[in-house]
Every structure is written in structure tokens, then in C-alpha cells.
Amino acid sequence: MRKALPLLILALTGCASVRDMDRGLLSQFTMTGPGQWEMTANAAGRGAQTDEGEATRLGWIRDYTQANGCNAYEITERRLTKAPPQRSMLGIKTDGDTIRYSGTCR
């Protein structure tokens, strides 16, 4: 058990780091006014209309809003912009769709 606990902690830390890295690479967050914000995210690898992709992006919004002093928020608009699939520098086909969320702090 003593050996398993450090491995579990390391694995969980690694997952959080990957999520943070993806957030920084695939999204942009801006406070647009007092208590108002906007996040734009590329749907690459997560699918614009998948439950898993949406859950990930909502987690990013939660992280961003908390880091900017919002204890609670409301999404007022979600706009999907469709784009043709692209290939990354590594040749991997990605979803070129962009999703823009707008919201307010409560």
C-alpha cells in the first residue's frame, strides 16, 4: 500500500498537468468587462459536440473564472464556428471547429 500511494498521487498530478497544458494550448480566456468574460476554445481532439469535450471545456471555464475572482458564473452564450478539419504539424487530423462561450460572474 505504501508503494501504491505515491504512484497514485503522481498519476493524478500528471492528469491535472495535461489538462492545464491543453487548456493553455487550446483556449483563450478574457475578462471583457466588470463581471463579464469570454472563452474561445479550439475543439481539436475533444469534439465540439461530444459530452467529454464539453465537460473538459466547462472545467476550463470553472478554472479560469475562479482564477479571476468569480465564485460562480453563468454561461450566457455558446457559439460554434465550423471549420474544415486541419492537420497539425505532426500530421494529425484535428477538428478545426471553434467554440466561443460568453458569460457573467454571479
Automatic annotation (TrEMBL):
<protein>
    <submittedName>
        <fullName>Formate-dependent nitrite reductase complex, Fe-S protein</fullName>
    </submittedName>
</protein>
